[in-house]
């Protein structure tokens, strides 16, 4: 059996661009909602001076992750921004000063057990760096009585066009990936690990294979360059042959899946104790003359990144993340979040003109979850709750493959998400 997939042009022009540090921005805007889950509340006030790596937002909720200042400066105000989940949340504005100073509270964590590892990862503020933004300590806290995990899967597929930040992690920080893997395997008692990289990234495959040669229980799997190869359910199936059922997670079938940049951060944090305050992003798009990978402070405004990029004209469309699953935005002050892996800039973009569905079935053939997007669209338009349940719309992972292949240019993927939201709201009412 082979899961459905599609072939995308990769446009990976920034692949060989070594990461550089962005010049210190004049200010950052740091959202109190940098993850899926409960937003944080500010623990500093307007007028306070803060240091780099200082705690500025926290929550007592389990499904949350603390937030730290990515710069040294003064908290000059508060504002509201819309996060990737479409919700409005509070954000702090911090104006930087020339003399950047690291917080004296920073120290490498002491990790001698599973509990120590989970606590350290939570304290670090880490969320999934592949784009989903799920608090990483939650993933590590699976119930050992229910789930017996035997395989750590490192997700380095990076299957969306343009994005090369994970690729550069393998090239520039491959040793940190290995260190993070060993730490997780040791304290979670996971006997083996597989690093999944698409085969059209031979240098990354070669570098990680060389680094893994010293360990009998770490291997590299060169995967077919197909989309959505990086989706957890697809990745687990293609590497292990195990199928994640409805309502299940990878740990349900013995696999823990973590993004390669996420794991590299764990390796680095164990050494330094510096929390998640910066990240590597790819800057590319049709108007970018020199695509590049840049390491930016969390909260850097998109306009400051654009100013540092070599662009021909100002963009009329911009994405945080990839063109398939990323989010468009229009405010130049939109900040880089923990989960942002790319900033893509385009101009003279054409609006798709939708026509009637011709029942060609391409969307069905493209869906890796085996869904029937055309029927989901009809069921949602009719607000037929029972039909939507029968169609298992909740399995849709919003990869966008159905919309991509549709010759009628219909927003099928968007309808899927509206249908999922409709079901959730109906369930909440009941």
Give your account of this protein's structure.
The chain has 430 residues and is α/β, with parallel strands linked by helices. The chain has helices spanning 114-124, 136-140, 165-172, 174-187, 202-212, 232-240, 260-272, 302-308, 362-366, 373-381, 385-390, 401-405, 412-429; strands at 20-21, 27-31, 41-42, 49-50, 55-58, 67-68, 73-82, 88-96, 151-156, 192-198, 218-223, 255-259, 278-284, 292-297, 317-320, 327-329, 342-346. It folds into three domains: 20-106 and 275-346, no CATH class; 114-272, Rossmann fold; 362-429, no CATH class. The protein is built from 13 helices and 17 strands. It has a six-stranded mixed beta sheet with strand order 1-14-13-17-15-16, sandwiched between helices. A four-stranded antiparallel beta sheet has the order 2-8-7-4, with no helix packed on it. The model has no long low-confidence stretch (mean pLDDT 94).
Strand order, biggest sheet? 1-14-13-17-15-16
Low-confidence segments, ≥5 residues, pLDDT <50? Answer: none
Which secondary-structure class do the elements indicate? alpha/beta
How many β-strands, per DSSP? 17
Based on Cα principal axes, name the global outline.
globular
Determine Rg (CA atoms, Å): 21 Å
Oligomer: single chain
> Average pLDDT value?
94
Percent of residues in helical segments?
A: 25-40%
Provide the number of structural domains.
Answer: 3
By DSSP (H or I, 4+ residues per run), the number of helices equals 13
Element string (H = helix, E = strand): EEEEEEEEHHEHHEHEHEHEEHEEEHHHHH
Main sheet properties: 6 strands, mixed
What portion of the residues fall into strands of 2 or more residues? 15-25%
Distance between the termini: 39 Å
């Amino acid at each position: 059996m082979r899961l459905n997939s599609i072939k995308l042009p990769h446009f990976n022009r920034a692949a060989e661009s070594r990461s550089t540090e962005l010049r210190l921005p004049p200010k950052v805007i740091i959202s109190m909602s940098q993850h899926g889950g409960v937003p944080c509340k500010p623990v500093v006030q307007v007028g306070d001076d803060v240091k780099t790596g200082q705690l500025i937002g926290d929550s007592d909720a389990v499904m949350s992750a603390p937030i730290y200042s990515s710069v040294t400066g003064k908290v000059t105000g508060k504002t509201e921004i819309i996060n990737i989940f479409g919700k409005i949340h509070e954000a702090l504005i911090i104006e930087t000063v020339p003399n950047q100073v690291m917080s004296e509270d920073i120290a490498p964590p002491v990790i001698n057990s599973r509990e120590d590892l989970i606590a350290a990862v939570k304290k670090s503020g880490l969320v999934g760096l592949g784009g989903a933004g799920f608090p990483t300590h939650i993933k590590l806290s699976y119930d050992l009585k229910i789930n017996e995990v035997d395989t750590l899967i490192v997700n380095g597929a990076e299957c969306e066009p343009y994005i090369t930040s994970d690729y550069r992690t393998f090239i520039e920080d491959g040793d940190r990936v290995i260190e993070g893997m060993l730490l997780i395997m040791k304290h979670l008692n996971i006997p083996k690990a597989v690093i999944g990289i698409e085969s059209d990234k031979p240098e990354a495959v070669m570098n990680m294979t060389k680094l893994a040669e010293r360990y009998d229980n770490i291997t590299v799997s060169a995967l077919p360059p197909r989309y959505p190869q990086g989706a957890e359910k697809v990745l687990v199936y293609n590497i292990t042959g195990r199928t994640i059922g409805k309502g299940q997670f990878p740990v349900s079938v013995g696999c823990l899946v973590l993004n390669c940049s996420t794991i590299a951060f764990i390796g680095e944090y164990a050494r330094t104790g510096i929390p998640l305050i910066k990240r590597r992003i790819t800057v590319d798009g049709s108007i970018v003359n020199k695509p590049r990978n840049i390491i930016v402070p969390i909260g850097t405004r998109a306009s400051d990144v654009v100013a540092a990029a070599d662009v021909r004209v100002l963009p009329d469309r911009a994405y945080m993340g990839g063109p398939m699953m990323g989010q468009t935005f229009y405010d130049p002050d939109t900040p880089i979040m923990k989960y942002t892996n790319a900033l893509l800039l385009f101009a003279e973009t054409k609006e798709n003109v939708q026509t009637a569905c011709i029942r060609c079935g391409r969307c069905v053939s493209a869906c890796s979850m085996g869904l029937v997007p055309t029927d989901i669209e009809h069921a949602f338009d009719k607000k037929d709750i029972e039909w939507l349940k029968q169609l298992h719309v909740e399995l849709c992972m919003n990869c966008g493959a159905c919309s991509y292949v549709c010759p009628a240019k219909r927003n099928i993927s968007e309808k899927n998400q509206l249908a999922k939201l409709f079901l959730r709201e109906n369930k909440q009412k009941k």
